[in-house]
Amino acid sequence: MKHLTKLISTLAIALFSLTATLGAAEASERYGTQKAVYHINYNGGEGDKAYLGALRNVQNHINAVGVDNMEVRIVLHGNGVGLLARALENDSLQTRVVELKGQNVLFNVCNNTLVGRKINPETDLFDVWEQDIVPSGVAEISYLQQQGFTYVKP
Prior knowledge:
The protein is of the alpha/beta class. The chain has helices spanning 2-31, 49-65, 82-86, 91-101, 111-116, 121-124, 137-146, and strands at 34-40, 70-76, 106-110, 133-134, 150-152. The protein folds into two domains: 1-31; 32-152, Hypothetical Protein Ychn, Chain: A (3-Layer(aba) Sandwich). It contains seven helices and five strands, in the order H-E-H-E-H-H-E-H-H-E-H-E. The protein has a five-stranded parallel β-sheet with strand order 4-3-2-1-5, with helices on both faces.
């Protein structure tokens, strides 16, 4: 009886693994390769809920298509730059940013916003490097769309 229970458990795990693998393969076949630009230019709201929701949407998109089949940019300008400012204090935001960057998601920050609001990216924002800064957030979105990126406003 003990062996039968172990066998059933092993078969259940194998079946679950096979189903998960087939589901991922099926999603990959359905969605192919994708390029997406996520546009964030709004406040995060209470508890940074809007920012966390936007980053969750990005992760869900990657999960559906597959990290190897995705090229993702998140363009932040105006109030959206607050996402990386809040990440200095909000551990959940910081963790999500790091996880997404670990999946090759690029965060592009608008230089016009930095200059206009006198934001120092080295001290006022989480994990922003010179190569992350683009001259204009809206121009970057348009440029990326011309390069085949699909526009997403979470």
